[in-house]
């Protein structure tokens, strides 16, 4: 679980940063200044990285036994600039909280 | 001499697990009826709509790719993969729901005290074969690093025991 969470967090951070670059830098350059070079280079890269994000999110949801709705919400959160960082923090807090509470039971009295 | 294979069809109804199988005729689709509730029909329809839509988008990307947009070859591969993922998630939900229903049935029968299964024993001449009792417990982690490793391994073993048929890759730990 820990490794899957780390994988998810790394790719979520990368996808979030690239998405913000695309929206904050690439879009104004393309539509405001008629210079599509940033969108043309970062755009496909973001698409490919988002696929990795989907795989990591699915892997994590399978291991954490999430309901389908939560998995789809986490996947969709990766498509929204800035929201992806919030989603990453929420996911980390979900998975970090119950770990500490879990106390093992003695096997033989 | 009866073999296990031909003993099954001759078993009269009522001697085996009457709680969960009453009203179900073997060999028909009665056992699948829970997949035909409004919520499940909505899921089946959503699955079919998404798959058809995704395959259509893939076809559209193929037409774009043959028209000269080389990036569309990538999308033409991606959409069928999405369609396959939808089918996989749908199949997984069905499987999980079935397993959950079976798990509830097992939990229900486990809560009943051991006196209860006696009527089934008395009704048929077949001796009742009971499965071993499954104990959901986490082994105690003693002090020390190697004991923590041992406890983790024991936890893995108990998970394997609690999930027969599961592959090691499914282990959530």
Main sheet overview of chain B: none
Number of extended strands of chain B: 0
What structural class do helix, strand and pairing data of chain B support?
Answer: mainly alpha
Cα-atom Rg of chain A, whole angstroms? 18 Å
Strand content of chain B: under 5%
SSE pattern of chain A, N- to C-terminal? HHHH
* Helicity level of chain B: 55-70%
Tell me the domain tally of chain A.
Answer: 1
Low-confidence stretches of chain B: 5-11, 114-123
Helical amount of chain A: over 70%
User: What would you report as the Rg of chain B, rounded to the nearest angstrom?
Assistant: 25 Å
Structural features, described:
The complex is a heterodimer of chains A (109) and B (173). Helices cover 80% and strands 0% of the residues of chain A. By secondary structure, chain A is mostly helical. Chain A has one domain (2-97). In chain A, helix 1 runs antiparallel to helix 2, helix 1 packs antiparallel against helix 4 (83-101) and helix 2 runs antiparallel to helix 3 (68-77). Chain B has two domains: 34-129, no CATH class; 134-167, no CATH class. Chain B has helices at residues 4-7, 18-21, 38-66, 72-111, 118-123, 145-162. Residues 5-11 and 114-123 of chain B have low confidence and may be disordered. Classes of the chains: A mainly alpha (109), B mainly alpha (173). Chain A binds chain B through residues 1, 44, 47, 51, 63-65, 68, 102, 104-107, and chain B through 71, 74, 78, 89, 93, 137-141, 151, 172-173.
């Amino acid at each position: 679980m820990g490794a899957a969470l780390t994988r998810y967090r790394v790719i979520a951070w990368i996808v979030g940063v690239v998405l913000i670059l695309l929206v904050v830098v690439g879009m104004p350059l393309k539509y405001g200044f008629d210079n599509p070079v940033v969108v043309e280079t970062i755009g496909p890269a973001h698409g490919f990285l988002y696929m990795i994000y989907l795989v990591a999110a699915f892997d994590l949801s399978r291991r954490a036994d999430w309901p389908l709705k939560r998995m789809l919400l986490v996947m969709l959160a990766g498509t929204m600039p800035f929201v992806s960082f919030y989603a990453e923090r929420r996911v980390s807090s979900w998975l970090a909280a119950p770990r500490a509470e879990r106390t093992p039971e003695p096997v033989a009295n | 001499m009866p073999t296990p294979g031909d003993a099954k069809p001759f078993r009269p109804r009522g001697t085996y697990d009457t709680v969960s199988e009453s009203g179900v005729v073997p060999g028909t689709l009665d056992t699948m009826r829970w997949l035909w509730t409004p919520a499940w029909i909505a899921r089946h329809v959503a699955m079919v709509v998404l798959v058809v839509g995704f395959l259509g988008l893939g076809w559209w990307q193929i037409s774009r790719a043959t028209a000269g947009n080389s990036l569309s070859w990538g999308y033409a591969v991606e959409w069928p993969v999405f369609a396959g993922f939808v089918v996989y998630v749908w199949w997984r939900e069905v499987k999980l729901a079935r397993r959950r229903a079976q798990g509830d049935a097992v939990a229900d029968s486990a809560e009943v005290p051991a006196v209860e299964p006696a009527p089934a024993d008395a009704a048929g001449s077949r001796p009742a074969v009971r499965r071993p009792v499954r104990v959901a417990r986490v082994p105690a982690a003693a002090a020390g690093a190697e004991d923590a490793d041992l406890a983790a391994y024991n936890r893995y073993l108990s998970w394997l025991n609690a999930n027969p048929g599961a592959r090691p890759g499914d282990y959530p730990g």
